Backbone:
């Protein structure tokens, strides 16, 4: 049975028709990706499902009591709460259930007979609802979700007013994922996520039992998470079976078939018209020619789009100028180090970039990716070592925030700055390739959308005719066709490329070497560590390497736990004195013993939790209260064991 149905939806905003006669059905448990050009109506469909807006015509039918979690593109937080407070705000219903259970338990103490039995049934129902809603695990889920979204312990008590835009977006996603939902509507969920957080989201979606609609330009995510793709284009929605790669193949096959059919129709009409022209005045053939003409006219009248060419999606279309190599050495980095106070982003980093080579830089947020680009461009100074570009190189720089665009200049003026030798007509032709047409070229940069700013930055890059491209998240705000066109242009570019990106699909298609900053051998956050990966496709090679390392590590952990670090007696004593008082009693245990204690207590807690459903417990308020105290005591002990284990592990 469907959980959501959209029937013959028509939606306009002023004179702009966004959706027309659109039909769409969503089913339980299905994960679908939604793709389409920017402005095609994808976010509008989500808002229609939510009921935030109403269709002009048609109807939206939702299953009764459907629980929906929604992540918009732009998030806002009211008030000034901490990260933890915001996470608890997302599960207020569990807090209310807990309070109701407590109050019902107290009421049972003063009741007798039929009233007590009725109250016990109510208590039983509340406890069941609390357990089914994940009430006993929600604190652990909050911690796991925050960790997955890159919120370390130091940010748990941070106020939302102190968070960056990217952190707010990640917090909003964490809140949505914490909810007990049947359907997730996620609008660009990987914006502001680093690779580790994106991979965590993929694992979450794989385990999530509900349905999900994911609007995303992250093709790697759509390949791993989606089982169907909804394409929104030309006011309609069309569903394709399979993941993104299957959608691309199907679209390509369909397009070839449409082009072949169009060519056949054109050829048939031209052949018929040629026959008519040759035979309309010939003796004995005039009747046949007239008959053919009537048939053709009737066909074209009844099918006005018979000769219409298959519609092609409008997207950017450009190429880079040929590069004359002035030097074999593009970039030399020797013994490079950069520190900010006690934090060292990298130490003794050494590598060369040669002409024509492509290096991608990736890693967790805050690992120093943008800093490394600024060091290469000479915008900031290293703490140690050297990094410099080769001589006489023309460098094209693409900044992810478009900070180099003067907000008071027009699109045309910015293009003129990039290449003053071109005429206005030539510049307007170049801008047209980046979808700036008509009066768009006179818009001030301050009035441009994120996507328009990024396209203008790309245009500047092409106009500068660079020898080397230095780019920071260049695919941000580009839709999928734009990204694919950009990748095609880079494939033809014969200069060097140095690019920071979290777009795994892009990395696979563009770069041949990957510099991973701030990750340990298993892919966990480890600021200061660096690693080079080679091979094509390079990100897939890195992902395969991580899987092999994790698989090799797993049996070791399962058999004997993490190996305890060797310390001198003095170091061990120093560690012991720094241990908080409430954890000192655990110092006598080894890491392996702590792990065994945690496992045993977790199993004991699970058995204790199951006893809440026993009739002889919930019918006896005294025994119920005792069991609740026992459960709380064991949960507190488990929390302490986790803290002790984390301190020891390190």
Residues:
């Amino acid at each position: 049975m469907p959980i959501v149905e959209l029937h013959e939806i028509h939606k306009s905003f002023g004179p702009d028709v966004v959706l027309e006669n659109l039909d769409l059905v969503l089913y339980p448990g299905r994960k679908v990706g939604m793709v389409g050009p920017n402005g095609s109506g994808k976010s509008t469909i989500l808002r229609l499902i939510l009921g935030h807006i109403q269709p002009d015509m048609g109807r939206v039918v939702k299953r009764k009591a459907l629980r929906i979690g929604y992540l918009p593109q732009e998030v806002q937080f009211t008030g000034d709460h901490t990260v933890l407070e915001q996470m608890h705000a997302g599960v207020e219903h569990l807090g209310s259930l807990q309070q109701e259970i407590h109050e019902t338990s107290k009421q049972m103490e003063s009741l007798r007979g039929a009233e007590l039995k009725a109250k016990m049934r109510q208590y039983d129902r509340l406890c069941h609802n609390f357990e089914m809603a994940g009430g006993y695990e929600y604190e652990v889920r909050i911690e796991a979700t925050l960790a997955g979204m890159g919120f370390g312990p130091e940010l748990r008590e941070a106020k939302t007013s102190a968070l960056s835009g990217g952190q707010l977006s990640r917090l909003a996603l964490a809140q949505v994922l914490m909810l007990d939902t049947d359907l997730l509507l996620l609008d660009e969920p990987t914006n502001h996520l680093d690779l580790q957080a994106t991979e965590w989201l993929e694992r979450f979606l794989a385990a999530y039992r509900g349905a999900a609609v994911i609007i995303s330009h992250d093709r790697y995510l759509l390949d791993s998470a989606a089982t169907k793709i909804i394409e929104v284009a030309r006011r309609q929605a069309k569903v394709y079976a399979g993941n993104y790669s299957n959608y691309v193949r199907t679209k390509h096959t369909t397009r070839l078939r449409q082009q072949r059919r169009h060519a056949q129709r054109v050829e048939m009409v031209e052949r018929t018209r040629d026959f008519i022209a040759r035979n309309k005045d010939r003796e004995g053939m005039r009747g046949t020619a007239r008959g053919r003409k009537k048939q053709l006219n009737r066909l074209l009248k009844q099918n006005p789009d018979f000769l219409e060419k298959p519609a092609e999606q409008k997207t950017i279309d450009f190429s880079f100028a040929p590069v004359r190599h002035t030097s074999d050495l593009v970039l030399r980095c020797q013994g490079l180090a950069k520190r900010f106070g006690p934090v060292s982003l990298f130490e003794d980093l050494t590598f060369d970039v040669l002409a024509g080579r492509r290096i991608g830089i990736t890693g967790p947020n805050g690992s120093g990716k943008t800093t490394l680009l600024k060091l290469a461009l000479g915008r900031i100074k290293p703490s140690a070592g050297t990094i410099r570009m080769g001589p006489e190189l023309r460098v094209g720089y693409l900044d992810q925030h478009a900070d180099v665009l003067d907000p008071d200049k027009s699109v045309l003026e910015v293009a003129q700055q990039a290449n003053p030798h071109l005429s206005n007509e030539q510049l307007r032709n170049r801008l047209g390739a980046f979808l700036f047409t008509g009066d768009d070229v006179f818009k001030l940069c301050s009035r441009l959308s994120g996507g328009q700013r990024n396209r203008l930055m790309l245009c500047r890059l092409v106009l500068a005719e660079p020898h080397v491209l230095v780019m920071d998240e260049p695919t941000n705000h580009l839709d999928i066709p734009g990204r694919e066109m950009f990748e095609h242009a880079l494939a033809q570019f014969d200069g060097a490329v140095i690019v920071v990106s979290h777009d795994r699909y892009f990395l696979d298609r563009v770069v041949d070497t990957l510099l991973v900053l701030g990750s340990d051998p298993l892919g966990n956050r480890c600021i200061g560590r660096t690693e080079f990966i080679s091979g094509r496709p390079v990100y897939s090679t890195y992902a395969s390497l991580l899987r092999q390392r994790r698989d090799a590590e797993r049996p070791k952990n399962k058999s004997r736990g993490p190996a305890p670090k060797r310390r001198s007696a003095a170091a061990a004593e120093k560690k012991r004195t720094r241990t908080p008082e409430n954890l000192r009693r655990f110092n006598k245990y080894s890491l392996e013993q702590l792990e065994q204690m945690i496992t045993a207590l977790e199993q004991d807690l699970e058995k204790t939790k199951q006893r809440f459903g026993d009739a002889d417990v919930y019918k006896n308020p005294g025994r119920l209260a005792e069991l609740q105290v026992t459960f709380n005591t064991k949960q507190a002990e488990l929390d302490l064991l986790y803290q002790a284990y984390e301190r020891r592990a390190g």
